[in-house]
Design a protein that fits this description.
This protein is about 35% helix and about 25% strand. Helix 3 packs across helix 4. The longest helix has 26 residues. The structure holds adenosine-5'-triphosphate and magnesium ion.
Length: about 280
């Protein structure tokens, strides 16, 4: 599905030192993600990545502007958009398999088919031996793999992922990167991935949005010019990742400088978007 952000902005009320304050999380964001694109979002901590994703998921509302999915304004969560968060969020009273089957059941899939689909995706995340275990019997990384399997089993038209791999060990992460790449190529699902891992973004995404330090806006939209499937070991990917590092570091340095500036407070942030939107690097 095609995704359009039209002038989407967001402020939050927060407790400041002594009084409530309004902090701008997102400057007006304009962005179009074509159907079937793998789109990654990177930027410093606190720049509004999750806020942007949550607005697209329908879990938060913008102050102004709107998000359109295939031309239809987002009015709340919907089964066309499935979200994977950093924490697994499994239902603790259901077995691993039933956690995966639950969403399929809601869609009216027959019990035998649900079970088969759950088995298939559990195998993919190397947890087929744990189908009947309870979530509390798994490690954090194992729970997260179940959560990813659960999302993939739903075969959503739009898959939204907020740092889904960050709690995983490097080997599992590599396996899941390959799987997500393969599934995306097979299904042509539109994927939006928020990550702090620049090489992950470069390995997986067609385009990468680099956000400015808070309040978040579009700093750059960068097309990753390598055909899929990609190899992690490619020297070209490494060079490209290094170039993006430089861009991000500019924004991370801004955040660090603010911390040291005694006169800077969050509500003093500029209210006009930075006019440095560019494509390519
Ligand atoms: N519910 C909330 N109430 C108040 N302020 C919020 C809320 N959610 C987010 N914010 C503020 O909005 C800004 C953006 O937060 P957001 O979680 O979108 O950042 P992020 O880019 O996802 O950061 P990270 O990389 O650390 O996950 C921050 O200044 C944060 O303090
Ligand atoms: Mg976040």
């Amino acid at each position: 599905m095609k995704i359009e952000f039209r002038n989407v902005s967001k402020t939050f009320a927060q407790q400041g030192n002594g009084s409530r304050r309004r902090v701008q999380a997102l400057m007006p964001v304009n962005l179009t993600i074509p159907k079937g694109e793998f789109f990654a979002i990177i930027g410093p901590s606190g720049c509004g990545k999750s806020t942007l994703l949550n607005i697209l998921a329908g879990l938060d509302t913008p102050d102004e502007g709107e998000v359109l999915v295939d031309g239809v304004p987002v009015r709340g969560a919907g089964s066309d958009r499935v979200v994977v968060f950093q924490e697994a969020g499994l239902m603790p009273w259901m077995t691993v398999s039933r956690n995966i089957e639950y969403g399929l059941k809601l869609r009216g899939m027959k019990a035998a088919d649900r079970r088969e689909r759950a088995e298939h995706f559990l195998k993919m995340v190397h947890l087929s031996k744990y189908a009947n275990a309870m979530p509390h019997e798994l490690s954090g990384g194992m729970r997260q793999r179940v959560s990813i399997a659960r999302a993939l089993a739903l075969e959503p038209k739009v898959l939204l992922m907020d740092e889904p791999f960050s709690a995983l060990d490097a080997q599992t992460r590599d396996v899941l990167h390959d799987e997500v790449q393969r599934i995306w190529q097979e299904t042509k699902t539109t994927i939006v991935l928020v990550t702090h891992n620049i090489s992950e973004a470069v390995f997986l995404a067609d385009r990468v949005l680099i956000m400015t330090a808070a309040p978040g806006s579009v700093k750059r939209l960068v097309r990753v010019p390598f055909a899929h499937p990609r190899a992690k070991s490619s020297a070209d990917l490494g060079t490209f990742t290094a170039a993006l590092h430089v861009q991000i570091k500019e924004e991370v340095d801004k955040v660090a400088a603010r911390e040291l500036d005694p006169d800077w407070t969050p509500e003093l942030m500029p209210t006009k978007p930075a006019n440095d939107i560019a494509s390519g690097i």
